[in-house]
C-alpha cells in the first residue's frame, strides 16, 4: 500500500498530511474461468492493487461460486494482496483453511456471525487482516463496538450473490456514516465498496470516503481490462 507524504508550511509551522493511495480490487468472480490463469496474470501485470475473491456457498447467498481448490490455484499465480470475501454461513469453520490457502485479508459478513468479535480475533490470530461486510439493508451502527478491531469494512452496494447488478444509490450515505464512525473512533479501518462500481461512480465513491473499489464485470467484460483498471486508478487518485 503506497503512502504519499505531502508537507505544507503555514505561518512558519510545518503541518504534515498523509494521503493514502486509493485502491482497485478486480473481482475474480467476473473473470473467465476457462482462462483463469490468464486473467490472474493480467491482474498481476495491471495497475490493480488487490485480488478480490468471492466465496459463495449457495446458502448465505443464492449462488455458488468456487471453493478451496480454485482459490489455491489463484494464490499460486497471484503476486498481489489476496482479499477473500466469504459469503457463507458459519465462516468460523474455515478461518485457518483460508489462511493456509494464502488469503491476506479475510472478510466475513456481519449477518453470518453470531459472535463477531470472536470471529474477528480468530482471523487475526491466523495471521490475516480482518474485514466485515455489510449487506445493503444492514446499518453502519452495528459496527460501533468493533470498528477499531477491523482492518476493512466492505459495504455491499448490491445485494450479494451475483455479479453485474445495478449500484444501490443509498451506498453513498452509508459510506459517509462509516467514515464518520471511523474518524470518531480514531480507527484506521479501510472502506471497501463491492458491487456496481464503474468509471461513472468511482470518483464520487472516493469523494464521500471510500478507500478500495471492487470492480468485477466493469473490468473483465470490457474490451481491454488492463486499460480499464488503469483508467479507474487514474480517476480515483
Automatic annotation (TrEMBL):
<feature type="binding site">
    <location>
        <position position="196"/>
    </location>
    <ligand>
        <name>substrate</name>
    </ligand>
</feature>
<dbReference type="InterPro" id="IPR013785">
    <property type="entry name" value="Aldolase_TIM"/>
</dbReference>
<feature type="binding site">
    <location>
        <begin position="161"/>
        <end position="164"/>
    </location>
    <ligand>
        <name>substrate</name>
    </ligand>
</feature>
<protein>
    <recommendedName>
        <fullName>Ribulose-phosphate 3-epimerase</fullName>
        <ecNumber>5.1.3.1</ecNumber>
    </recommendedName>
</protein>
<feature type="binding site">
    <location>
        <position position="54"/>
    </location>
    <ligand>
        <name>a divalent metal cation</name>
    </ligand>
</feature>
<feature type="binding site">
    <location>
        <begin position="194"/>
        <end position="196"/>
    </location>
    <ligand>
        <name>substrate</name>
    </ligand>
</feature>
<feature type="binding site">
    <location>
        <position position="52"/>
    </location>
    <ligand>
        <name>a divalent metal cation</name>
    </ligand>
</feature>
<dbReference type="InterPro" id="IPR026019">
    <property type="entry name" value="Ribul_P_3_epim"/>
</dbReference>
<feature type="active site" description="Proton donor">
    <location>
        <position position="194"/>
    </location>
</feature>
<dbReference type="GO" id="GO:0046872">
    <property type="term" value="F:metal ion binding"/>
</dbReference>
<dbReference type="GO" id="GO:0019323">
    <property type="term" value="P:pentose catabolic process"/>
</dbReference>
<keyword id="KW-0119">Carbohydrate metabolism</keyword>
<feature type="binding site">
    <location>
        <position position="85"/>
    </location>
    <ligand>
        <name>substrate</name>
    </ligand>
</feature>
<dbReference type="GO" id="GO:0004750">
    <property type="term" value="F:D-ribulose-phosphate 3-epimerase activity"/>
</dbReference>
<feature type="binding site">
    <location>
        <position position="194"/>
    </location>
    <ligand>
        <name>a divalent metal cation</name>
    </ligand>
</feature>
<dbReference type="GO" id="GO:0006098">
    <property type="term" value="P:pentose-phosphate shunt"/>
</dbReference>
<dbReference type="Pfam" id="PF00834">
    <property type="entry name" value="Ribul_P_3_epim"/>
</dbReference>
<keyword id="KW-0464">Manganese</keyword>
<comment type="function">
    <text>Catalyzes the reversible epimerization of D-ribulose 5-phosphate to D-xylulose 5-phosphate.</text>
</comment>
<comment type="pathway">
    <text>Carbohydrate degradation.</text>
</comment>
<comment type="similarity">
    <text>Belongs to the ribulose-phosphate 3-epimerase family.</text>
</comment>
<dbReference type="GO" id="GO:0005737">
    <property type="term" value="C:cytoplasm"/>
</dbReference>
<keyword id="KW-0862">Zinc</keyword>
<feature type="active site" description="Proton acceptor">
    <location>
        <position position="54"/>
    </location>
</feature>
<dbReference type="InterPro" id="IPR000056">
    <property type="entry name" value="Ribul_P_3_epim-like"/>
</dbReference>
<keyword id="KW-0170">Cobalt</keyword>
<feature type="binding site">
    <location>
        <position position="85"/>
    </location>
    <ligand>
        <name>a divalent metal cation</name>
    </ligand>
</feature>
<feature type="binding site">
    <location>
        <position position="27"/>
    </location>
    <ligand>
        <name>substrate</name>
    </ligand>
</feature>
<keyword id="KW-0413">Isomerase</keyword>
<keyword id="KW-0479">Metal-binding</keyword>
<feature type="binding site">
    <location>
        <begin position="216"/>
        <end position="217"/>
    </location>
    <ligand>
        <name>substrate</name>
    </ligand>
</feature>
<dbReference type="InterPro" id="IPR011060">
    <property type="entry name" value="RibuloseP-bd_barrel"/>
</dbReference>
Amino acid at each position: 500500500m503506497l503512502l504519499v507524504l505531502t508537507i505544507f508550511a503555514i505561518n512558519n509551522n510545518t503541518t504534515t498530511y498523509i494521503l493514502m493511495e486509493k485502491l482497485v480490487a478486480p473481482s475474480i468472480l467476473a473473470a473467465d474461468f476457462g482462462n483463469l490463469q490468464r486473467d490472474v496474470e493480467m491482474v498481476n501485470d495491471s495497475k490493480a492493487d488487490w485480488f478480490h475473491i468471492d466465496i459463495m456457498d449457495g446458502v448465505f447467498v443464492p449462488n455458488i461460486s468456487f471453493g478451496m481448490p480454485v482459490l489455491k490455484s489463484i494464490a499460486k499465480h497471484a503476486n498481489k494482496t489476496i482479499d477473500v470475501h466469504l459469503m457463507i454461513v458459519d465462516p468460523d469453520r474455515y478461518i485457518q483453511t483460508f489462511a493456509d490457502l494464502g488469503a491476506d485479508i479475510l472478510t466475513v459478513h456481519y449477518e453470518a456471525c453470531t459472535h463477531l468479535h470472536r470471529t474477528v480475533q480468530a482471523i487475526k490470530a491466523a495471521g490475516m487482516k480482518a474485514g466485515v461486510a455489510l449487506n445493503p439493508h444492514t446499518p453502519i451502527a452495528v459496527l460501533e463496538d468493533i470498528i477499531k478491531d477491523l482492518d476493512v469494512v466492505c459495504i455491499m452496494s448490491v445485494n450479494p450473490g451475483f455479479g453485474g447488478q445495478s449500484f444501490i444509490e443509498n451506498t453513498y450515505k452509508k459510506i459517509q456514516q462509516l467514515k464518520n464512525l471511523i474518524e470518531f473512533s480514531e480507527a484506521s479501518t479501510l472502506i471497501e465498496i463491492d458491487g456496481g462500481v464503474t468509471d461513472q461512480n468511482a470518483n464520487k465513491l472516493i469523494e464521500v470516503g471510500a478507500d478500495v473499489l471492487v470492480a468485477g464485470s466493469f473490468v473483465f467484460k470490457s474490451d481491454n481490462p488492463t486499460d480499464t483498471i488503469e483508467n479507474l486508478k487514474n480517476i480515483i487518485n
